[in-house]
Design a protein that fits this description.
13 strands, 220 residues, 7-stranded mixed beta sheet, single chain
């Protein structure tokens, strides 16, 4: 196999930049944070899992992950003033699963007021027939992808989901998925990105998404 010196040099430089990246994972009362931490380590990054506002604000990238319930999550964020910290961040931020939902305006889950970065409401899946199971759990495709988060995506790809609530398609939709009805499986507004699916559990496809997030330029 012949690999050009230019390609090797670019890959080496990229790997060096990734290793130097200061990534903060927001610590709060939501599950699955450990899986995101492990995914970062597979990329060569040693992330900091923290609820310290100073560390979060100083990070190059912030990941806001989690599995859990909206009301108790928002109560924790407010008690630790993380709600104010998160909405004020200027570096690239990636919300995952409940993190994406909490970045929206309101959730039907226990009638919860959320952070309001995305001015859209989170809805509960309503089964239309006997085959519709809630929560959606397992692999499904993301389609109509756009934005730098999906650089290199040219066809629908399978990723892993587990959720009972969804974000309707809206002006910030950058990927869609069809389960009971089409909905937003990813969002983007300014420096905020979000995925309803779990990139950290989505194999090589998810790794590409996380790598795109880490290596994107600010405000792309």
């Amino acid at each position: 196999m012949c690999i050009s010196l230019k390609s090797c040099t670019f890959a080496t430089v990229l790997y060096g930049l990734v290793k130097q990246m200061n990534v903060a994972i927001v610590k709060y009362n939501a599950g699955n944070i450990g899986s995101v931490e492990n995914a970062m380590r597979r990329l060569g990054i040693q992330p900091t899992v923290t609820d310290d506002p100073e560390i979060i604000c100083a990070a190059d990238r912030v990941i806001f992950p989690g599995q859990g319930e909206a009301r108790s999550a928002m109560e924790y964020l407010k008690a630790h003033r993380l709600d104010e910290v998160i909405v004020g961040l200027k570096q690239p931020v990636l919300g995952i699963c409940i993190g994406m939902q909490l970045l929206c305006r309101h959730s039907e889950e226990q009638d919860t007021e959320c952070l309001g970065v995305f001015d859209v409401d989170v809805k509960r899946f309503e089964p239309q027939n006997h085959e519709d199971k809630v929560p959606q759990m397992g692999w499904n495709t993301i389609e109509d992808t756009k934005s730098v988060l999906f650089t290199g995506f040219e066809k629908p790809e399978y990723v892993y989901f587990i959720h009972s609530f969804y974000v309707p398609k809206c002006e910030w939709t950058i990927a869609t998925t069809n389960y009971i009805q089409p909905y937003s499986s990813a969002l983007h507004k300014d420096n905020f990105y979000a995925t309803q699916f779990h990139p950290e559990k989505s194999g090589s496809v998810g790794e590409r998404i996380l790598k795109n997030f880490i290596t994107m330029r600010n405000q792309e």
